[in-house]
Amino acid sequence: MTTLIPALEAQLLFAADRTTPGAAPSPGASRRRARWGGLPLLAVVAASLTVSAGAYASRGLWLPQLGADSYGHAQATASPPPGAESSVLGVLRREQSDADRDVAVRAVLRDAGPSLGKIRTNAVRRLGTLPDGRVAVLVPARVPKGFDPTLPNMTQDQLLLGIYDPATHGTGGFLTSDALGMQAGDLMLAVSRRPSAEQSALGHAFLEREVRAGRLEKSAEPPYYHVLSVEQSERYARATGLRPTDPDVYVGVVPDGVAEVRVDGHTTVPVVGNFFAAPSTRGSRHPVVWLDAHGRTVPFASTIGAWK
Amino acid sequence: MKGMDHPLDRLGDAALIAATRTDPEAFAALYRRYERPVLAYFVRRVRSADLAADLTAETFAGALASLRRDAGPGGDPAAWLFGIARIKLVELHRRGYSEDAARRLLAMDPVDLDDGQLDAIDQLAQDDAVEELVSALPAPQREAVVARILDDRDYGAIAADLDVSEATVRQRVSRGLAALRIRIEGTR
Questions:
Q1: Which pLDDT score, from 0 to 100, does residue A101 have?
Q2: Residue A168 is assigned to a structural domain of this protein
Q3: A9 vs B5, B31, B112: nearest CB
Q4: Are A52 and A97 in contact (CB under 8 A)?
Q5: Contact between chains at B120 and A7 (C-beta distance less than 8 A)
Q6: Is B86's Cβ below 8 Å from some Cβ in A?
Q7: Nearest C-alpha neighbor of A11 from the set B48, B100, B174
Q8: Orientation of helix B49-68 relative to helix B24-46, angle to 10°
Q9: Which residues contact A220 (CB under 8 A, 6 or more apart)?
Q10: Which residue of A has its CA nearest to B114?
Q11: Nearest to A136 by CA among A165, A113, A158
Q12: CA–CA separation, A244 vs A231, rounded Å?
């Protein structure tokens, strides 16, 4: 059923979630108290990752609302993520928790239109809360063949990084070509602008050519999700050289073994559950660097080698 | 998969209300089910899409707040919801403005509507489908639904007028609303 005022539906869902007995702390509450320079970033991220392991381990397929009548629905699938994803992202190997099914996650899933194909709902993970209150969600999907005609060899196993903003109830997100391709340079783009409630149906989408040109313009044309990653060599170059023009936060998903991310030459942020969020440093031309637990650089190429 | 409903959308009203205790999505499903009827109820009376939307938001916020106080429907959920709507309308006429107490309680923000949404709400006022659907109900159900939902009369008073038991009136209202819901969904 399509509503005439989806923003009101979203607000009511958010209010209902916040007032449901036993519900997880609301993203909105964390937004009000968490600011840059406030709580340590690690504490903010870690707090958002509190899980009750095993809560859904023995249950059947999770059937949240996927998409909406106005733009169609993706399907839910019980198939697990392929080994290429789960073997390098520990967050996919842990069990789904209550937090992984909270209102922010469901808001992101309501953007999952038919173009995404099938969503691995039991593998959806709430990655963490950004210090400004926005919530990052990882959505594994199996997209249809020919999803992007410009990338004929693209794997059908995709990961969507979704963002939910409790301030506007807007959501956005985009796919990467696979888990290991999710580099900081890509993921920064997804949250460089704050989606509004009006944009919730479209989400945030950036065309690859816009990224190359250094312009981050929202695409109003369907399909609503554009794959930013292209051939690997270009991806590497972009991950180390391209910066959004005016980002307000960097977020990213990194493989197991990356303990910290250096974002502007000297600011280092921790990685929790394969996820990091870092404050923006405008104008920086330093590349994003992945670091292991000993502070050594983790080269992108060697990490990604498994899926060449 | 276009047109596929959320599983909650297939629950009956009473089961949906019960589900709101533990599943926030259930309240969203309740909103989806009754958004248009409630908007239509208001826009026909206040002749303003903006105001109708405002009153609708306050009605659903009030319903959610009531559920959280364990003051949900004692009987028919639709009658309960429209009862809240009628109270909001009475308060509007008494105060001269639409209150926002329930929304403030729930920390809800005002919702901005674009022209397309306002037009769609206005259209509800011009749409005779609801009246047609009500008029198509069997007479006993129609009388009961109009008296209870639109006129907000007590079951006891309706029962006395119709010379039947209160239980019979409740049954007629419930069946009438169920029939309306099926027919409304069939028109979408």
A1: 92
A2: yes
A3: B31
A4: yes
A5: no
A6: no
A7: B100
A8: 140
A9: A202
A10: A198
A11: A165
A12: 20
A168-225 residue pLDDT tens:
665 555 444 322 233 333 333 332 223 332 222 222 333 333 333 333 333 332 222 2
B128-188 fold: Arc Repressor Mutant, subunit A (1.10.10)
Give the one of A11, A63, A73 whose C-beta lies nearest to B111's C-beta: A11
Residue A164 three-state SS: strand
- Residue carrying the six token digits 């060899």: A153
Specify if A254 maps to a domain. Answer: no
pLDDT of residue B128: 60
pLDDT value of residue B38: 92
Looking at the 3D structure of chain A, how many domains does it have? 1
Write out chain B residues lying below 8 Å of A8, CB-based.
31, 35, 53, 56-57, 60, 111
Whole-complex ipTM = 0.74
pTM of the shown model: 0.47
Integer Cα distance of A136 and A273 in angstroms: 12
Measured over the CA atoms of residue A143, residue A149, residue A153 and residue A159, the dihedral's sign is negative
**Nearest to residue A88, comparing CAs of A232, A257, A229, A239?**
A257
The pLDDT tens digits of the residues spanning B70-104 come to: 888 877 788 889 888 988 888 887 777 777 888 88
- Tell me whether residues A15 and B117 touch, CB distance under 8 A: no
Chain B contact for A28, CB < 8 A? yes
pLDDT digits (tens, 9 = 90+) for A255-290: 778 898 876 678 888 999 988 777 654 455 555 677
Q: Measured at the alpha carbon of residue B59, what is the angle toward residues B58 and B64, in degrees to the nearest 5?
A: 95
The structural domains of chain B, with segments of one domain joined by +, span 1-127, 128-188
Which phi-psi region, left, alpha or beta, contains residue A60 (left: φ > 0; alpha: ψ -120 to 50)? beta
Residue A285 domain-assigned (yes or no): no
Q: Which residues are CB-contacts of B184 (< 8 A; sequence separation ≥ 6)?
A: B36, B37, B129, B130, B133
The verdict on A304 touching B (C-beta cutoff 8 Å) is no
Chain A 196-255, residues with CB within 8 Å of chain B CB atoms: 197-198
